[in-house]
Amino acid sequence: MTRYIALLRGVNVGGITIRSADLRELVESLGFDEVRTVLASGNVAFDSERTDAAALKRDLERALGERFGYEAWIVLVTRDELERVIEAFPFDADDASRQPWVVFASEASALDDLLDTAGETDPDVDPIRRGDGVVYWNPVKGTTVDTPFAKVLAKARFKPTTTNRNLRTLAKLLGGRGRPEQRPGRPERDGAASASRPGPSRGLA
Fold first, then answer.
1. How many CA atoms lie within 13 A of 115 on its CB side?
2. Which pLDDT tens digit goes with each residue over 149-167?
3. pLDDT tens, position by position, 21-76
4. Is 5 helix (H, G, I), strand (E, B) or coil?
5. What predicted TM-score, i.e. pTM, was given to this entire model?
6. Which residues of the chain does CATH 3.30.70.1280 include?
7. Element (H, E) at 205
8. Which parts pass through the membrane (predicted)?
């Protein structure tokens, strides 16, 4: 049995609305076990005996498209792969003044194009680093729609090929199986709108 994590692109930010309960119900209906969603930005973990990740990804995308009526694409990784991505974060993940992000893409060339377009960035304002199949980004909290790299990431050419998640959201996806407990207090949201000042989550999906 393998633990998989699926990250849906563009959910609940660009006119595509998928409730976490509906996403969980769909994944359970496909026969997967221990299904768990995290936040409302399209994150779901589940257990499966299937080992062909590419075929599993295609089946999930087709099911999402049929159920919710959009052209779905997802990032699909195993728990072990996601754990390695998190552990390799090259900046101080505990710095409360920063928002640690991981950018995923439909293919490696999209990340190369993203970095080439961004060019050299200010390491104090826009620290970015290429990782294994990802780009790490650690902007100052409250600037995630304003920095030069944020504006590159928000360009229309990258919206169909990239999706990003806060490092803390990814860490939660490594947590326990099954439905998460409901905790009191203000719910946490993934995306740029969770920054210290309000604002739209342009390009951060």
1. 17
2. 999 999 999 988 999 999 9
3. 999 999 999 999 999 999 988 999 999 999 999 999 999 999 999 999 999 999 99
4. strand
5. 0.83
6. 2-82
7. none
8. none
Hey, what are 119's tokens?
């060019």
Q: How far apart (Å, rounded) are the C-alpha atoms in residues 112 and 73?
A: 19
Q: How do strand 101-105 and strand 162-166 relate by DSSP bridges? A: antiparallel
Q: How long is the chain?
A: 205
CATH topology of domain 88-167: Alpha-Beta Plaits (3.30.70)
> For the domain bounded by 2-82, which CATH number is listed?
3.30.70.1280
Residue 106 buriedness (CB in 10 A; 0-12 / 13-18 / 19+): middle
- Alpha helices in 70-193, H assignment, sequence order: 79-87, 108-118, 148-153, 167-173
Question: Which residue's structure tokens are 């849906």?
Answer: 8
Report in angstroms the alpha-carbon separations of 104 from 76, 77, 155: 10, 11, 15
Residue 46 is encoded by which pair of tokens?
Answer: 């589940």
